[in-house]
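Backbone-to-sequence.
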């Protein structure tokens, strides 16, 4: 089992840092009551949230919670099953506003795509039109707003970086030519 292999001890954690255009947050997977549980917190990953200054992992979740509370970092309630976790990530938790900031997508229909694919393998009677309709219905027709200012820092010195790459390639080609003679 996953929990027995990856989360053997009470102080075993898997931590994902997620960066979106809205900011960063972390997801912590941990063992409780012999199963995987999840928590979200509103910050980038910092080792000091999970380890002492000597590099030892905190023994109990309460120590981690104490550090996060002291830093004023928001912490979600415990998510105790994978389905709820997946619904949060895919934005299917429409009635729970506290989790909206953790949505990577916003679609209520994400589950229909993999169910359709599964049906294709299990049932030869599913027509291509049915598959097409389910996939189209699962896509949101709402326009999504993308703040281009969020990505502008990536482009601000693009031309300079491109020129640096061209210079490097020229230097490398000259050295290769010199070595071949």
């Amino acid at each position: 089992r996953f929990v027995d292999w990856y989360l053997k001890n009470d102080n075993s954690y898997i931590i994902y840092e997620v960066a979106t255009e809205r900011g960063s947050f972390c997801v912590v997977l941990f063992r409780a009551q012999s199963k995987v549980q999840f928590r979200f917190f509103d910050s980038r990953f910092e080792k000091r949230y999970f380890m002492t200054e000597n590099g030892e992992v905190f023994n109990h979740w309460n120590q981690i919670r104490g550090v996060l509370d002291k830093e004023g970092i928001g912490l979600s309630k415990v998510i105790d099953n994978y389905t709820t976790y997946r619904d949060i990530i895919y934005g299917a938790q429409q009635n729970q506003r506290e989790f909206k900031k953790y949505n990577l997508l916003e679609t209520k229909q994400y589950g229909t795509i993999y169910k359709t694919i599964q049906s294709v393998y299990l049932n030869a009677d599913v027509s291509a039109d049915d598959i097409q309709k389910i996939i189209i219905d699962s896509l949101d027709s709402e326009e999504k707003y993308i703040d281009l200012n969020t990505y502008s820092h990536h482009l601000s010195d693009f031309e300079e970086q491109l020129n640096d790459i061209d210079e490097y390639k020229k230097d490398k080609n000259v050295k290769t030519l010199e070595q071949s003679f």
